[in-house]
Write a structure and sequence with these properties.
about 80 residues, mainly alpha, about 70% helix, elongated
């Protein structure tokens, strides 16, 4: 393994996993204001974190429609 692989593993656990948890927490508090794309994001958050600790098959990728929703402030 290269140093880049170790750096990616560190960044996933130090940055991405905590950020995903914060985003998911805020979304859960305001679930009544959000749309269906959030379910896909929650599946991604859980699968991504599990995959950081133990390799998993079929982990959902970050949902493009969720990214589009956030980018347009929900005005899709």
């Amino acid at each position: 393994m290269s140093n880049l692989s170790a750096l990616w593993q560190f960044r996933k656990l130090a940055c991405l996993v905590p950020n995903n948890r914060r985003i998911a927490s805020v979304m859960q508090k305001h679930a009544d204001l959000l749309v269906n794309q959030t379910c896909k994001f929650f599946e991604h958050v859980e699968g991504f974190e599990q995959n950081c600790y133990e390799r998993r098959e079929g982990v959902p990728r970050f949902p493009k429609d969720f990214a589009d929703m956030v980018r347009t402030d929900g005005n899709t």
